[in-house]
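Pinned message: reference record for 8-oxo-dGTP diphosphatase
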Amino acid sequence: MKHIHVTCAIIERDGLVLAAQRSEGMSMPLKWEFPGGKIDPGESPEECLRRELLEEMSIQVGIEESLPASTHNYQKFAITLYPFICSLKTEEIVLHEHAALAWLPAGELHCLDWAEADLPVVDSYLVACGVQS
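Predicted structure (tokens):
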């Protein structure tokens, strides 16, 4: 089974958290996720996250804290997510790959239809910031 390693950013701003909706052309269309992407060979997770966010949304972030990695097995592949809590350093977000984005209070994150691999990351984040899910 193929196993991919992916970073993801939990971007906080003004008490809200950014979620991105996958476009119809992506795998798992219209599911919500924390933005990020595949780690290239020789690349650190932090370097990957900065590169992917620039490519996907034209944004720069400050990486504040890492959360525990989480592995999920889909039917055809496994994915390990490396989540980082980040602050947004850029004013404007330009969506190059995603269909939509949403800024939500942490307690409302579970209202979205998340990609299955992101659900443990949502839970881990809620525990880290002391929010009841």
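Pinned by admin. Summary line: The domain at 2-128 is CATH 3.90.79.10 (Nucleoside Triphosphate Pyrophosphohydrolase).
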